[in-house]
Write the structure tokens for this entry.
Amino acid sequence: MNRISVSSPSNIALIKYWGMSDARQTLPNNLSLSMTLSQCRSFCTLSRLTTGTADEILWKRTSGPLIAAQNSLRIGIERHLHSLRERFDDWTPLCIATTNNFPTGAGIASSASGFSALAVAFALHCGHSLNSPELSGLARLSGSGSAARSVLGGFVQWPGDAHQLDGPAQQLAPAQHWPLHDLIAIVDATPKSVSSREGHFLAATSPFYSTRLSLLPERLATVRQAIERRDFNALAVAVEREAVELHIIAMTSQPPVFYWQPATLRILERVRQLRDQGLEVCATVDAGPNVHVLCTAQHKTAAFAALSMMPGIERWIFDQAGDGPRRLARHLF
Ligand code: PMV
């Protein structure tokens, strides 16, 4: 059996993609910028089926056996596959197995890692390499814009060219440039009730959305410069403002979307106090209640010691800036 297996990382957005200019092509209203993670990953194995005409789609929980994927996952994968097949004109039926090593659908960008893994596996199956500049566009065909960033390591902007919204993501700096840590406080690991896709559609109903879009170019420039200079304090202020603003848009959409839980707010407040006390630490929250606590290697132990005993945290995931997708010799089937 000729199997192709890859793993692809999740990423945490420092400047968030929120709201689409073109839903069919998944084009954003604004440029976004993320840090690719190292530990939180999706795995995908793909092989041609020699019998039958239907795809076989399998899913594995973090621990457990491979089982037939439930409908919602299956539909998302089939939709993405259809677009990939149109793009390559390759219609062979496939067996695809996928899994994540972290909670799915809880605001830790499992769609980014999952769909980028599928795009990369399919591209390799069609003869492309891990360095293909097309990977970002292929990942975006899934409908997940953040997947377009997960095909690259380090600090990534999507789209890379501000004048080309349908252009690929671009790496601004590799992970080694600034190996920041991401301590992820899992406040609630259950899948969120409002998907990011629904959130993107609702964004423009917030009366503050146009203000947000007008503020973003300057904030993006600030974050880019902070990364370039490894200026943690400049990064921290911009990243926290950005996180709060995304949720203001969500909470003032019609109908409103509340991703935060009480513990989310408590952690955000505590992180600010710690920074006031001199620690290089800041926090951001994607479309879910879980908090990404970013810090320098130097202040990681102190930050964790101060936060670990807070109430309302189910568990922690320790991650850091990492490289992009990898081809694997170990397969899921
Ligand atoms: O890529 P999507 O459609 O799952 O949207 C991602 C939305 C955020 O995670 C909140 C922000 C981002 O840029 O990753």
